[in-house]
Specification:
alpha+beta; 10-stranded antiparallel β-barrel; 10 strands
Length: 292
């Protein structure tokens, strides 16, 4: 959804260069999220946890509504139309079917969750043009990447994990479409490889152990950067956009450390502000630039 407005039909795609950039901006505040979290937490407590799917759907909706895409030709407002009922039914199915099938139904549960998340991700341009994501994948299509990937990861004592994650990401991206007025406007493509991603993970884990966990923040940033820089959006009718992530490990470390300490000192009251800081770091440092 982030780059739906890159499609020529929308009028947002410019030429190559510094102006041909799409960047999401998060404008939510801790105060606004505090109310959302407080009400959701109370209802979850009063319903003995049953309200949790509705709580989660409300949080997703809030974060979407407080994120705007800045494009060369105008802003695109995001929204989420998924419901707690959809999440609840999926979780209920997982609770009942996963034990009965020894986990083999996992790909279908994942596909259903992806469909809820992606098919209900919407955008509206300043001129009223509607955009939304479409997920065309199925549980059958995810069976090989998930079940096969998990088995090979276990057999290789975790070494195949990098190839597993890359293969799964590639499969999911290949099944995602961007629609403009319900017409296909762009597709996604993931170009990462298991070998190169293994290097990022291996070095990251090694440095994380040496630094007693401190380097984990830099490692996470490197993972986000790798995922972004290997994700392309191919616009129907021509034009290719590549994502990027320019966040720094040091900034992420300070953001997390300060937020964690303030949350602990305030006995959890600062948590909504902490969540907003983390969201802003991750969202605002993403972008996409036209490369062809």
């Amino acid at each position: 959804m982030t780059f739906a407005n890159a499609a020529p039909q929308s009028g947002f795609a410019g030429g190559t260069g510094p102006d041909a950039i799409v960047r999401p901006v998060f404008t939510g505040t801790g105060g606004g999220l505090f109310v959302q979290v407080l009400i959701g937490a109370l209802l979850t407590l009063l319903t003995l946890g049953i309200y949790t799917p509705w709580f989660v759907a409300g949080l997703i909706r809030w974060f979407y509504e407080n994120t705007t895409l800045q494009t060369p030709r105008g802003n695109v407002r995001l929204s989420f139309s998924g419901t707690g009922g959809q999440f609840f039914l999926t979780l209920l199915m997982a609770y009942v079917l996963l034990p009965l099938t020894l986990g083999l139904v996992t790909p279908w549960i994942v596909a259903r969750l992806l469909r809820i998340m992606l098919d209900h991700t919407n955008g509206t341009a300043e001129d009223g043009t509607p955009y939304r994501l479409k997920y065309l994948g199925t549980g059958g299509g995810l069976f090989g990447p998930i079940v096969g990937g998990m088995l090979l990861t276990m057999i290789t004592f975790g070494i195949y994990g990098a190839w597993f994650l890359v293969g799964l990401t590639r499969r999911i991206c290949a099944d995602v479409r961007i629609a403009e007025n319900d017409e296909e406007a762009a597709t996604f493509q993931f170009t990462g490889t298991g070998g190169s991603f293994f290097g990022v993970i291996f070095v990251g884990y090694l440095l994380t152990m040496i630094t007693f966990g401190i380097y984990s923040f830099w490692m996470q940033v490197n993972v986000w950067r790798y995922q972004s820089q290997h994700t392309q959006i191919n616009v129907t009718g021509g034009g290719t956009w590549r994502m990027d992530f320019d966040g720094k490990g040091g900034e992420y470390f300070v953001t997390f450390l300060v937020g964690y300490l303030l949350t602990a000192i305030t006995l959890g009251i600062y948590l909504p502000w902490f969540m907003c800081k983390l969201a802003k770091f991750q969202i605002d440092h993403h972008s996409a630039a036209r490369i062809a």
